[in-house]
Amino acid sequence: MKMTRIFLSTLSLCLLLLQLNLSKAQPGSPQKLPFTFHSLFPFFGRPEDANIPLKGPQDDLQNVPQQAADQKPQKLSPDFYIKTCPNAQKIVADALADIVKKNPGALGNLLRLQFHDCFVNGCDASILLDYSPSGDTVEKSSMVNGLLLKGADMIDDIKLKLEEQCPQTVSCADTLAFTANEVMTMAGLPPRKPLGGRRDALVSLSSAADADNLPLPDWTMDQMVKLFTKKGFNIEEMVILLGAHSIGMAHCDLFIQRAYNFQNTGKPDPTLTVEAVEEFKKACPNVNTPKYRNPPVNFDATPTVLDNLFYMEMVERNRTFLITDSHLLTDQRTLPLVQQFAHDPSLFPRRFPEVMLKLGSLNVLTGNEGEIRKICRSTN
To answer: Structure pTM?
Structure first.
């Protein structure tokens, strides 16, 4: 109690001295707090902060220094690693070639992984994190990713090769983007130099993935168009990105109801041909196979080649696995585009890399944003 009285007395005396000093100031002059006040009571603020009005978040946005406001985000560049890791593209290509020798299906897995990363918060490798510092469930464990999303372990292997030659230089986001670029080359498209400069996210949230940021296999066409439009892609670009199924595969549980019990009718999907229904039943003979244990089926007959066969089989055989793909044939906004890609074998291979370049630049972190992870599964 005695110490409290001494403190309060001292405080009262200092405040009185402060008032006397302020009363001596010239009229109209700024009334700055004397330095002795801050020396005695540093918890009240720094001297250089004195007489600066408090501002809310909106004020901060409106009063950004001009120099900071003029600064542009660092752009992605094909020469980003020309000095720090000039062999980055070759390292990725060699590592991917080793993976594909053992697992040709890796091509489709890795292309899908890139899409699932970029469409949530942007191409920031948040899909690769095993935990979030906040403790929240991460993207790869979300409902729309779950146990069927593959490829993270392959990125681990590729990143390890990069770390051996260029320690903590190439981000996981760039590792994933460079890998997707090499997937296209290995799948038969002309080689392209990838863009570098992405940085890695510090958080990953399953809630972001589940918040209608990734399409579900039974969505309507309006839901699909809404999502792709929100991400900055027009209908043609949406049809092109869905063409990634050219090297993809689908598990039976995603489409088997179309052959056995479409919309609980006890009958096959009436839009499927008899040939397609028989093919589905042959590929998935046990309708009661537990989810995530059923076999995958290739979307088309060339599962390692990015070509227009995916569209050709739609048009010529009415062959589609996913409900979302079937809508491409029934919606007048997309049917002419599907027909165009089916009839011109050179169009899809030319347009697909262009749209993938746009995808790989979606909401990227650059400059000092995020970090360069040493291990893609965890933050530094």
So the answer is: 0.78
